[in-house]
Design a protein that fits this description.
The complex is a heterodimer of chains A (about 425) and B (about 240). Chain A has about 425 residues and is of the alpha+beta class. Chain A contains 14 helices and eleven strands. Chain A has a six-stranded mixed barrel with strand order 3-4-8-5-7-6. In chain A, a hairpin with an 8-residue loop joins strand 6 (about 180-185) and strand 7. In chain B, the strands form two sheets. A six-stranded mixed sheet of chain B has the order 6-7-8-3-9-10, sandwiched between helices. A four-stranded antiparallel sheet of chain B has the order 2-1-4-5, with helices on one face. The N and C termini of chain B lie close together (about 10 Å). Classes of the chains: A alpha+beta (about 425), B alpha/beta (about 240).
Amino acid sequence: MRFIAFAFKNLFRRPLRTGLTIMGIALAVAVAVSLIGFNIGYRRSIDVSIDKLGFQVMIMAKGCPYEAATMMLKGGTGLVYLPASTYDQVRSDPDIAAITPIFVGVAEKEGSGINDESASSFAIISGIEVESFVSMKPWMTMSQGAGHLGGRWFADDATGEVVLGYEVAEYEQRKVGDSYYVSITPYGQTEPVMSEFKVVGILERTGTQDDGTVFMPISLARSLFNRPTELTIVGFKLKNFSGFALRQFEQRWAKLPEVQVVGLQQVKTTLVSLVETAQTMIASVAVVAIIVAIIGVINSIMMSVFERTGEIGIMKAIGASKSDIFQIIWLETMAICLGGGVGGVILALSGTSLVEKAIQSLIDFGTRGSMVAITPQVMLVALLGSAVVGCFAGLYPAWRASSMRPVEAIREGE
Amino acid sequence: MNNNIETMEAPIITARGLKKHYKRGIETIKALDGVSLDIRSGEMVSILGPSGSGKTTLINLLSCLDAPDAGELVIAGRSVNGLVEEELVNVRQGVLGFIFQKFHLLPTLTVAENVELPLMFLRRQVDREKTLEVLRQVDLENRAGHLPKELSGGQMQRVAIARALITDSKVLIADEPTGNLDKANGEAVFALFRRLVTEKNLTVIVTTHNLALGGLADRIITLEDGLIIDEHLRQ
């Protein structure tokens, strides 16, 4: 028999206690793994979402950059607008490689035919200039799936045509050639006006906010929302993008009234830092859970050591050295912690969706899709972390056990 | 039976003036107060005496489980005075085997695994054939796969004896091995000791309250108040 097998046999003498201790560690590890997974997944999601905006810099109306960013990433209702003249002023900047104006509005859905209370009853309308917009997002192509064949972009002067993002089409069950209805309340009016559009194209899935957007010509959108001289954002690509070039660009155009220049790297940082507040809270819970679990492990092993005082004395009498006893107790602790680590990873993997919902209830993500990415590296870190915890948690009980004098241990055990 | 002590080998254990005192409050308990003895290979020695006479203290010192406050102790030619615990472990390993009143078998290990446990600490390869052979010597070869809870007290004590034998110990030290056994099982254990002394030339040191069983040894040492008050060969 080897030490490790012996340690396992000892643990199975008290299966309930061992099981509960492992569960304590597993819960702590699951929280930590979910948190790390969320951190990685969220950053990755932010990166993808922002990178797929297609531009590096945007000009928007002054306000909270976080609201502006989340509005751009997933749509929003607190829209603010900037004068369309801004676009004309800025487009002549020599550092600009590409520029596109975007008008975003929120409309009410009509006639989807699907009764789903959990779904939003609003549609995000994005008015764009096709050529400049698509040149910034070359990955936006027309879907060729069933019912999507023959899709195309609308002409900039078209008046009754829209292109649907993949999820909008899927949710609304629209095909190319179908009608699409929305009610828009024009600026300055109180009653919404229902409009009918022809779906001329359905986009391939991009995994970004574009999947949930209805695209139409910018002139049409501005007209329907009765904001003929306004824009929501202007997106740019700079010729030689760098931090210095961005600062230069910002300095040049920050002088415009009522607008702000926002670098998308800054948006990433803003979003991540805001979510970090929630993460800090969750991390605190995880740290407390881990500390409690470690105390639980030490307590459990110490109880086991005290219960086996006589036995430890006997083992010493029949030839066990201090280091043998230390090794046995330490292995028992390690086994508990590693068992908890494996259990925690499994728990985290199986509870990903629950964790997402829990975190979503705490803070608005600002992005779409799955936020928790439990990678093999995260799992490895969790297991290594459990092993490290086991190493330290086992030190004291193992030292106590190995320091027992055989005669006294045997006497106490009797 | 080894009645002729003079013809036996040189002492495997030599003790001179062993003292062990304990403090209890302001009182000093003289558990052992200068005990000297020689124990030879192939000898069966019983240590008799009432409770508190120092039997267990003496046996703990002879088995290197405890260190004397004064005196000299040589085991298998090696002086153990001043040795630290890890060095005492080395002296014990492979030389001394222990049998306790309460058996102290590990409940989750089978009989065979309990017997093989010391081998794990000695880093020796387990040889199941040898384990069964040792169990055969204590008439338990058919119980190798059983758990201790499935055995009687006498059987458990025989497993403990097998555990002491597996390492080819030269000396078996048994502290009240029959204390938890009935008369028949107690006699069976002593008969087994006698057989091991005769057949394997083992040295057996055993403490007991039972004068009749103690009288079965080659030499009977009687302790009282930490001193040897009588020592005689078996009649």
